[in-house]
Design brief:
With 260 residues, this protein is of the alpha+beta class. The chain has eight helices and eight strands.
């Protein structure tokens, strides 16, 4: 009787061990198509002349990602390099500490799956006026490279794709013109607004700036308006579902799985 119980116990333990190994294996397999991102928070303390001249800007908060989770050390190094603070806005921690402009630096993870890491860095500060900036980066986690339109979309359809996005930009501009010109009677002011919008066009060269999600692609466009008329600027975010983009997606590209 005791022998039977002993055998049964061993069988149950082996079954449990097999189950745990299987679950662990599934988890590890699923985890290979993404990275682990942990936020690191740094408080920059400014001293000397900056602290004396700008006492309200003695400190700045910087939050940036620490990346791990990739088994290929070379790819991991490339991903970490792409996400280096200086690659966001061209400034290092030392640069930010030695200048009074920055108030906050942070990031948002938009997508981290299917061998794609989509991340947006943000910074805000104060110079002659308050300013907020963002910098988007999309990384191929198979090799650590920054993703371009050619990695995702059919090369012979890039011009047609740019035209598709431009139609959305022009539609938005039409709405903005109607809103911002209403009630303006000064001819010079009206001309200034019309001229600002007239020069805007989404072109093939803009296609490399896009963000991905489970449901589709958002093409990003920066009109680059000066601060004095920045409130009139188009939002510059044009979303298209994968169903809409099916004919534009490369069959062997990074988003090929979403063609179905």
């Amino acid at each position: 009787m005791q022998t039977s119980r002993h055998i049964l116990t061993q069988v149950l333990l082996l079954t449990l061990l097999f189950f745990l190994c299987a679950v662990t294996g599934i988890t590890q397999t699923r985890a290979t198509d993404r990275v682990i991102l942990r936020p690191r928070r740094v408080v920059l303390v400014r001293t000397g002349e900056i602290a004396r001249n700008f006492p309200e800007r003695k400190r700045a908060i910087v939050v940036y990602p620490i990346v791990s989770g990739l088994s290929d050390a070379a790819v991991l190094r490339r991903v970490r390099s792409a996400l280096d603070i200086k690659n966001a806005f061209g400034s290092t921690l030392a640069d930010y500490r030695g200048d009074a402009w920055l108030s906050e630096f942070g990031y948002k993870v938009n997508y981290n799956a299917d061998y794609l890491l989509d991340i947006t860095f943000t910074q805000s500060g104060m110079g002659a006026y308050p300013d907020d900036q963002d910098r988007h980066i999309l990384i191929n986690l198979r090799d650590g490279s920054v993703v371009t339109a050619a990695d995702v979309f059919e090369p012979n359809k890039l011009d047609a794709l740019a035209q598709l996005v431009d139609r959305e930009l022009q539609r938005e501009i039409g709405k903005l013109e109607a809103e911002n010109l209403t009630g303006i009677t000064d001819a010079d002011e009206r001309k200034s607004i019309n001229d600002a919008y007239a020069n805007l066009k989404y072109e093939r060269a803009n296609l490399d700036e896009f963000s991905v999600s489970r449901s589709g692609v958002t093409f990003l466009y920066d009109a680059g308006f000066p601060h004095v008329i920045q409130a009139l600027e188009p939002q510059g975010r044009y979303f298209f579902s994968y169903k809409t983009l099916k004919d534009y997606l490369r069959r062997d590209g990074l988003l090929a799985k979403f063609r179905n």
